[in-house]
User: Fold this.
Amino acid sequence: MRLSESETSFMEYVKKMEAFNEALQLIYWDLRTGAPKKGVKQRSQVVGVLSNEYFQMSISEEMAAFIAKLYGRKQELPELVQKTLEECKRVYDQNKKIPPKEYKEYVILQTEAESVWEEAREKSDFSMFKPYLEQLVHFNKKFIEYWGYRGNKYNTLLDLYEPGVTVETIDKEFETLKEVIIPLIKNIQESENQPETDFLYQSFSKEKQKEFSLKILGQMGYDFEAGRLDETVHPFATGLNPGDVRITTRYDDCDWRMAIFGIIHEGGHALYEQNISEELIGTPLCTGTSMGIHESQSLFYENILARDRSFWEYNFEVLQKYAGRQLDHISIDEFYHAINKAEPSLIRIESDNLTYPLHIIIRYEIEKGLFNNEISINDLPEIWNNKYEQYLGIRPKNDAEGVLQDVHWAAGSFGYFPSYLLGYMYAAQIKNTMVKAIPEYDGLLKTGNLEPIKQWLSKHIYRYGKTKKPLELIKAITGEGLSAKYLTDYLVKKYTALYEL
Amino acid sequence: MRLSESETSFMEYVKKMEAFNEALQLIYWDLRTGAPKKGVKQRSQVVGVLSNEYFQMSISEEMAAFIAKLYGRKQELPELVQKTLEECKRVYDQNKKIPPKEYKEYVILQTEAESVWEEAREKSDFSMFKPYLEQLVHFNKKFIEYWGYRGNKYNTLLDLYEPGVTVETIDKEFETLKEVIIPLIKNIQESENQPETDFLYQSFSKEKQKEFSLKILGQMGYDFEAGRLDETVHPFATGLNPGDVRITTRYDDCDWRMAIFGIIHEGGHALYEQNISEELIGTPLCTGTSMGIHESQSLFYENILARDRSFWEYNFEVLQKYAGRQLDHISIDEFYHAINKAEPSLIRIESDNLTYPLHIIIRYEIEKGLFNNEISINDLPEIWNNKYEQYLGIRPKNDAEGVLQDVHWAAGSFGYFPSYLLGYMYAAQIKNTMVKAIPEYDGLLKTGNLEPIKQWLSKHIYRYGKTKKPLELIKAITGEGLSAKYLTDYLVKKYTALYEL
Assistant:
C-alpha cells in the first residue's frame, strides 16, 4: 500500500526514534556484559544524550503535529501506520502529561533511591530507605492524577505494564490462586514423599553447563545467527532487532540450575523477539506486547516445558554426560522430583514453581493498598512479614529478607510485579490450548523436537509484536479471557502426582 | 575559567555530537567482534541515522552560527574552546564545501567499490575494479578543487590524514629511505648469515597466546579496567573514551607472531587513547592527533620495542613457558634474528620491518602520480609491478598479489598510505629523543619495567590528544622537523649487526 506524504514522514520520524532506541539498547547490553568500568562515567553521558533525544522526539511539536494530522482519520490508515500512531500517542500522552520539572526530579530520585536501597538492604535497615520510598510513592500518586484513572487508581500503574488488565480481574484470579496454592503447599509439606536434592549441588564446570545450555537453546529453536550468549551479573534478554536478540546468564559452579534454567528462561524471551514479523522493524511495535505476555514465554519454557518429565526423558541422559559422573546413579524420577521440589521460602527470586505465585500476590496486595491509602509505609515491614507468615507459613527475620529484597520499588516500578504472575497464568492457559492444537506435544518433548512448539507460538503470539494487546491475544488464542483455572489445574495435577498426595 | 553563554552552548553542542560519535564507535566495535549477522541489516539503518545526525550537526546552521560568533575572537577564548572551535571549523569547511548531492553519490560509490574490489581481488582481475577506481579518483579530484590546495594538489589529500605534511617533505624523506633501504636489502640477501625460522611456525594454542599477550600488555601499561581484548577478523583498536579503549586480535595456531605482535601493535594505539587528558573528553580533540602519530605509537611498540633484543632478554623465557616445548632448544640470539628476518615479499601486510617502507613508498608514488595526472589508471598494474621489481627485486605474478591487494583505494582513502611510513619515521625519531631522556631505556626493557616509557610518552604525546598538530608535537619533542635519518640510522645499525654485514 502506498503511503501519503505525511504518513511517510511520520514513519520516517518513528524509524529515527527507534534507531536511537536500538543504539541505547546496545549500550545497555554492553554495560552489563563487560564494558570497562573506567569508561562508564562518560558512557552515562552518551546514554543521557541519546535517551533525552529519544524522549524529546516522543513529545516534540513535530510528534504533536503528526498526531493532530493523522489521529482523526486513523481508521483510514494502513494498519501498521495506525497501530504505530496509537502507540506513539499513548507514549506522547504519558510523557507529556507530567510537568518536565517534576519528571526531572523523579528521575534523579530514582537514581538516588536505588543506591540508598542497596545500602539499606545490606544493612537490613528499612528506615534508611523509607523516606525515599515515600517520595517515590508520592510522585507516582501525582502521576496517576496527571494520567487519570478508571475505577481503582492502581489500574493506571497496571496499565503501564499490562494494558487492559485491571484490579478487578487480578483480585479475582489471584484469589483463586491463593485458595488452591496455600492448602496445596500445606499438603506437600506434610507429605512423606520428599525428594532428595543433594545431587543438584555438586560441582559442574561452567564450560559444560554452557555447552549443555547451548544444546537446549538449539532444541528450542533459538537462532544463533540472530543472537549470542554472554555472561552477566543479573541475567536478561535484549531484543535489539529480530535479527539480534541477545541472552545473558550467570554460572554457579555448584548449582547448575541457575545457568541452565536461567538460559531457558531468557531463551523463551528471546524466541519471542526473534520471531516478530519483519515488517514491524523500525517501529515501536517491534517488541513484545506486554511484560506479562513476555513473561508467559519465558515461564512457559522454563517452568512448564523444561520441568516436564517428558522433556527430561530426552535430555536427562545428555545432561548426565555433561555433568560428569555426579548424576550417574540418579534415576530420571528422582531427578524429575528434585527439580520440581516445592518448599516455602523467603526470597522471591530463589523460590520454586509452586510457591512463587504467593510471593507476587503479597507484593500486589501491598502495592494496591499503598496506592489506595489503605496501607501506610510505616507499617510495611510488619505487613510484609505478616503476609509471609499467613500465606507461606514462614516469617522474615529482618528487612533484608523481607520488604527490602526487591529492587523494583527503588526503581519506582509500581504495578510491575503482577506481570510475573499474569505471565505464569497466561503460560498455563496458552499451553492448555496448545496441546489441543498439537496433540503430539508430549511426544515432541520426548524426542527433543521442539520446533513445532516454537512455530505454533510464533504463529499465534510472536509475529504480532505489539500490534495486539495482551488480553486481545489471549482471547484470540484461547477463546476466552484470562483465567487462573489453567494454572491451578496444572499445579494441582503436577504436584499431587509428584508428592503422591 | 568561566565560559560565556555562547561558549557554553557551543561546548554542549559539541558534547552532543561526540555522544553520537561514541555510540557509533561502539556499534562498529560490536559489528566487528561478534554481532549476530542477521541483525546487521537493521543495525546499518541505525548507523545511517546516527552518522547522518552527526554529519548534519557538523554543517548545521547552528554550527555556522557558533563559528560566526566565536571564530573572530578566537584568541580570547579559553584554549580548550579555541582548539575545539578550530577543529569544528576545519570539519565544517571540509564537509560544507562538497555539494550534498555529490557527497551522497560518493558514499554510494564507496560501498559499491569495496564489494567490487573484493570480488576483483578474488578473481585477480583489475579490469573489473578499474571503472570504480576511475570514478573514485575523479570524485577526489573534484573534492580537491572544492577544498582548494597549496602547492601540489595531492597535499590536500595528505592533509586529511597528516595535517601539515606536504609532498615536498615526503619526497625528500622517502628519497633518503630508498637510498638506504634498497641497498641494505640487497646486502642482506647476499649475506650468508640467514636466520632459521621453522620454529616460529609450530602449534601454539590460542589460549596460551592470549595469556602471554595479556602479560605483555600489562608490562606496556595497558589499563585493563579501561579496556578489553576481543577477537576479530581484521584487528583494530578503538578508543570510545579514555576509560574505554578496546583492542582486538586474530589468532593463528601456527604462527603466534600474528596475535602477539598484533596485540602489541594495537596496544600501542591503545596506550595513546587511554592516556589522553580527561579534560578533552566530550570534545573532538579527545583522540590521537593524526594517523601518522597514532601509527608511530603502534609501530614504536611493535617494531622497535618488541623487536629489541633487550625486550626478549626479559620475555623470551616467559614466551618459552607459554609456547610449550617448541622453543626450548632455541637460543635467544636465534630467536631474535628469526623475528627480525628481512626478505623482499609482495604483500604489504605480511612484510617485515625493513622492507615495509618500500611497500608504502610505491603506493605513495603512484597516488601522487594519479592526482597530478602523471599516471593513467590503465597503466596501474604495470607501473605497480615495475616498481616492485625495481625496489624489491620481485615482480607480482597477478593483480591479486599486485595492485589489488589493499582495500584503501576501494574505500576512497587516497593520501592515507604515507601515514604508515610517517609513523615509522616519527617512531624512530621520537625513540632517539626518548633514550636521551631515559638513558636506562635498555635496562628497563631487560627488567620488563616499561612503565617509565609509557609515562614519558604520555607526558610528551598522549595527554595532548588532538590539541597539537603532528609536526608541532615532533618539533616540541625532538627540537627539529621530521627527518628520515633516525629511521635509516636505526635500520642500518640493527640489520648490519643482525646479518653481520
In short: The interface with chain A takes residues 15-16, 19-20, 22-23, 26-27, 30, 34-43, 45-46, 48-50, 223-228, 240-246, 281-282 of chain B (CB under 8 Å). The mean pLDDT of chain B is 97. The two ends of chain B are 60 Å apart (CA to CA).
